[in-house]
Specification:
391 residues, 34 strands, globular, mainly beta, Methylamine Dehydrogenase, Chain H, 4-stranded antiparallel beta sheet, 3 helices, single chain
């Protein structure tokens, strides 16, 4: 279930969970008595082979905390962070541990990697940089608030989005803050928080809790453009939630984004000009390839949209209410994870379910990551797996 956050509450509540969340969830989904149950899984008429290449651990898992940990892949390694403070570098081919370090503190974001650093964030609002070679700590600096999504790193700048709405840039060698781009947040928001996305030589895209998508410069944090993906409306704070909690996705010179209780949209990266938009609500986000955009909506139906027009190509409803992740395009397929830890494989052509595999009984909450035809998944229970689809 989705867990909104009241921003005026203590920042610790952003990490540790809120009393009364079930009441808000009941409003969103119709209450425990009349809420639609998740779809039952039925045998598939035919199934592709799914190869689990390896399985490893990212620690003890997240328990009841609503934190979207995800792997980071770079240079033949997979970097993972666990809620319990463990950070590990794994061999991408075998899953073998290359190094592991215990930071002895609860972590609030998945690992990011770049420019020789592995970066994680803690519940205490610190950004911690480790050597990607052996895990040695390089520096740690305070943030204006905790970060629930991974940083991004490029050309000497680390960029982090924090739960108070700010986007900030830090110097790779020292951790010194280089710039900050402040943004206001509404009184009530979802607790997903999308990650910044690098674009071009000097751009950073970031969605906001107020339904806006922004492009700022990587070097200085100067605003280039800001556009509404959704506009808040309604008479209550609940009805006015329009968060962009899925990462924006860039294909060529086009960026795609989707908002909760809002729209899916395609914009020109350079000037933010809208190319198309359509009503569609999602709190987990979307994926794309060169021909289609794939969206998991708020009821866990998966949509395929034409990349040029936004027109519907197909809709998969057999996973209704299974709390799916954002879709990931991988080869001839589209993959989504669910609340029982299954990774479901859909045909790109028509959305048919063509395979499934369970990888973590605790469920899958964070985005899955594709690299070189392999899907890397980090489950709520702490399992990390590498999967490759068959023919």
């Amino acid at each position: 279930m989705l867990k909104p956050v009241i921003r005026s509450a203590a920042l610790s509540l952003l990490i540790l969970g809120l009393g009364g969340c079930s009441t808000i969830s009941d409003w969103m989904f119709g209450g425990d008595d009349n809420r639609e149950p998740p779809a039952e899984l039925t045998p598939l008429s035919s199934s592709i082979g799914i190869n689990q290449l390896w399985s490893a651990s990212a620690g003890t898992g997240v328990g009841e905390d609503w934190i979207r940990f995800r792997p980071a892949v770079n240079g033949g390694r997979v970097y993972v962070a666990g809620r319990d403070g463990e950070v590990r570098a794994l061999n991408a081919a075998s899953g073998a541990t290359i190094w592991s370090i215990d930071l002895d503190m609860p972590l609030s974001s998945g690992a990011a990697v770049g420019d020789g650093l592995v970066l994680v964030s803690g519940d205490n609002g610190e950004l911690i940089a480790l050597s990607d070679t052996d895990g040695t700590e390089r520096w740690r600096v305070p943030l204006t608030a905790p970060a629930l999504s991974p940083a991004v790193v490029k050309t000497g700048i680390v960029v982090v989005r924090t739960v108070d709405g700010n986007i900030a840039g830090f110097d790779v060698p020292t951790g010194g803050r280089v710039w900050v781009y402040p943004r206001r947040v509404p009184a009530l928001t979802m607790r997903g928080v999308s990650a910044p996305v690098l674009v071009g030589k000097n751009g950073v895209l970031s969605g906001s809790d107020s339904g806006k998508l922004s492009l700022v410069t990587l070097e200085k944090g100067f605003p280039v453009w800001e556009r509404d993906i959704a506009v808040a409306s309604g008479n209550s704070e609940l009805a006015r939630m329009v968060d962009i909690d899925g990462d924006p996705v860039v294909v060529g010179n086009i960026v795609f984004a989707v908002a909760f209780q809002g729209r899916a949209a395609a914009l020109n990266v350079q000037d933010g000009q809208a190319l198309w938009s359509r009503e569609l609500s999602s709190s987990v986000g979307l994926g794309a390839d060169t021909e289609q955009v794939y969206v998991t909506d708020e009821k866990s139906d998966v949509w395929s949209l034409d990349i040029s027009t936004g027109a519907s190509l197909w809709r998969q409803t057999d996973l209704h209410r299974r709390q799916l992740t954002a879709p990931v395009a991988i080869g001839k397929y589209v993959a989504v994870g669910d609340f029982e830890g299954y990774v479901h494989w859909l045909s790109r052509e028509d959305g048919r379910l063509v395979g499934r595999i369970q990888v973590d009984a605790g469920g899958i909450l964070g985005p899955m990551v594709e690299s070189d035809g392999v899907l890397y998944v980090q489950g709520r229970g702490g399992n990390v797996v590498a999967l490759r689809p068959g023919a």
